[in-house]
Specification:
This protein is mostly helical. The protein has 4 helices and no strands.
């Protein structure tokens, strides 16, 4: 993989998903994953330190349980996000990153910068969301 500067941002004039683009997104995804793992580890560590439920009254125990439940759901969402990040990195390695899973068309640099784990182009994503809304309204 080609080396890029810390300030490099993909240029729309460059060939789509050239080696520089792939290096940029791999770096962005890897850094994002590292930050999520660090934050999750910190949250889990802090949760383990805050366990004073044995000495607390029933209201405090219920409050503590609710807080921990919310935190664990957030961590579970982050774990799912890590899986999506891993899938995106694998797609970079397979040379399929940046292309819509439904149409095969380019997703677009701007969209990938905003959402590096995007797997659908805007048109396919909008179609998918409309279908979800139709089924949700039933």
């Amino acid at each position: 993989m080609v080396k890029i500067s810390k300030t490099y941002v993909p240029n729309l004039k460059e060939k789509y998903m050239c080696e520089k683009h792939k290096a940029f997104f791999k770096k962005k995804l890897t850094e994002w994953k590292t930050e999520i793992v660090r934050a999750n580890n910190e949250a889990l560590y802090n949760n383990s330190l805050d366990d004073n439920s044995a000495s607390a009254d029933i209201v405090d125990q219920a409050s503590s349980y609710t807080e921990k439940n919310v935190e664990m759901r957030a961590i579970n969402r982050q774990i799912k996000l890590i899986a999506k990040i891993d899938q995106a990195v694998k797609k970079i390695q397979d040379d399929t990153y940046g292309y819509c899973e439904e149409t095969g068309e380019p997703i677009g640099i701007k969209r990938l910068i905003a959402r590096p784990i995007a797997t659908l182009c805007i048109a396919a994503q909008e179609k998918h969301e409309k279908e979800e809304k139709v089924y949700a309204d039933l």
